[in-house]
Amino acid sequence: MEYPLRDGKGTKAHSFKEFHMKDGTTIGVFQGSRGENPDLDILIKFKKENTNVRTPAHIHWIIDILIKKEHNRELTLEFAKYLRDMWDRVKPFKTKEEQQKCELTQTTHEKLKNFEELNKYGEFDVEFIGHLIELMMIMEKTGLDRAFVFKQLMDTIIKEKDIFSIVAKAIQKRGR
The domain containing residue 22 runs over which residues? Predict the structure, then answer.
């Protein structure tokens, strides 16, 4: 996967790791440059078939979770709790080798298969949401000492706060 840099020279950044989803979506992991560990920082981009490369934001997957919740409340809340609990298990990159391998351990097919019914609803499959969130957690834990938006956002869903509270938290500016 590649995307154009804003350098005025037509330079393109290339992913060092890609995750290909069953639904045709690809998540690309690129070298980042921010935070406390810029050499270990990552940028995450995704591309669905026949679309442009996009930078994910919390609002993308949160809207999808809300759609899923309208169709299957109990399973969606169980999925949200699983994602929230991942926060404590996901570890930041400590070495360049770990960053380049970029292994996802919490969103394997086996761990997500109980939530696959949710794929009937919304834009994204649980595989995409899980991989995206695990990568975002790694990114936040690796270089952003004030990263807290994800945990608070998941809590607003699990506690079934009103849609305005959830969307406000999802579009809150982070330290990036």
Answer: 2-170
8 Å CB contact between 118 and 74: no
Distances (CA, A) of 50 to 13, 24, 54: 20, 10, 12
> Is 11 in contact with 4 (CB distance < 8 Å)?
yes
* 176 is a domain residue: no
Is 129 part of a structural domain of the chain?
yes
Global confidence as pTM: 0.91
Rounded CA separation 69/84 (Å): 16
Residue 126 in domain: yes
Residues 126, 129, 134, 136: what is their CA dihedral angle, to the nearest 10 degrees?
180
**Do residues 54 and 46 make contact, with C-beta atoms less than 8 angstroms apart?**
yes
In tens digits, the chain (176 residues) has pLDDT values of 999 988 889 899 999 999 999 989 999 999 999 888 899 999 999 999 889 999 998 899 999 999 999 999 999 999 999 999 998 899 999 999 999 999 999 999 999 999 999 999 999 999 999 999 999 999 988 876 556 677 888 889 999 998 888 888 888 764 44
